[in-house]
Design brief:
Strand content: 15-25%
CATH class of the largest domain: Mainly Beta
Distance between the termini: 34 Å
Mean pLDDT: 94
CATH topology of the largest domain: Immunoglobulin-like
CATH architecture of the largest domain: Sandwich
Low-confidence stretches: none
Order of helices and strands: HHHHHEEEEEEEE
Radius of gyration: 20 Å
Largest sheet: 5 strands, antiparallel
Length: 186
């Protein structure tokens, strides 16, 4: 997620927390932490520690990564790089992202349709060429613009939450690039 802007991260959050699944968040994801989330461990058994490090390097190399750049999970520096910097939360961007996550989680808790675990009660519409997707769960529609150009999506309603430029019209909602609108449609 370090390669995504805050709009893309907000889209990811809305789709993950708006899905019927239990969302798994990595440490610091809820405020767009700049710290990497690297695997680290502290095996007292040196043979196990060496096997873990070698296995990770081999696994990443199989996926095209430079094995020399894979951090050693036993190295204390790997742990230190991954420690969250709680001071980041006071910055405007991370504070806004944290607020967006809190609002999404609160909506998931308060809106019965968002707590419905059945995939049969979820619909998804998209137009790949225009780079938008809409996930609908009962009276809630999560409209996302994955592209950089403004787009009109066929979802209308009262904006409940949002990130980026949103203009709700009678039959459509206009979304700026990398933006998301959570709409109450009824």
């Amino acid at each position: 997620s370090q390669n995504l802007d805050h709009g893309q991260l907000a889209i990811k959050a809305a789709l993950a927390l708006g899905s019927p699944y239990t969302a798994m968040l990595f440490m610091g994801e809820e405020w767009a932490s700049s710290r990497p989330f690297q695997f680290f461990n502290s095996h007292p058994d040196q043979e196990l520690a060496s096997a873990t490090a070698a296995g990770r390097k081999a696994e990443f190399a199989d996926h095209g990564w430079d094995a020399a750049k894979i951090p050693d999970p036993q190295d204390p520096e790997t742990f230190l790089r991954s420690k969250l910097d709680w001071a980041e939360v006071s910055d405007s961007g991370p504070a806004r992202m944290l607020g967006f996550y809190r609002d999404l989680i609160a909506l998931r808790h308060s809106e019965p349709a968002m707590a419905d675990p059945w995939l049969t009660h979820l619909t998804v519409d998209y137009v790949e060429e225009q780079r938008w997707i809409i996930m609908r769960r009962g009276p809630i529609a999560i409209a996302c613009n994955l592209g950089i150009e403004d787009v009109d999506v066929p979802a209308a309603g009262e904006p409940v939450l949002g990130w980026g430029g949103i203009a709700a019209e009678t039959d459509t909602t206009r979304l700026a690039g990398h933006s998301v609108a959570v709409l109450r449609t009824t």
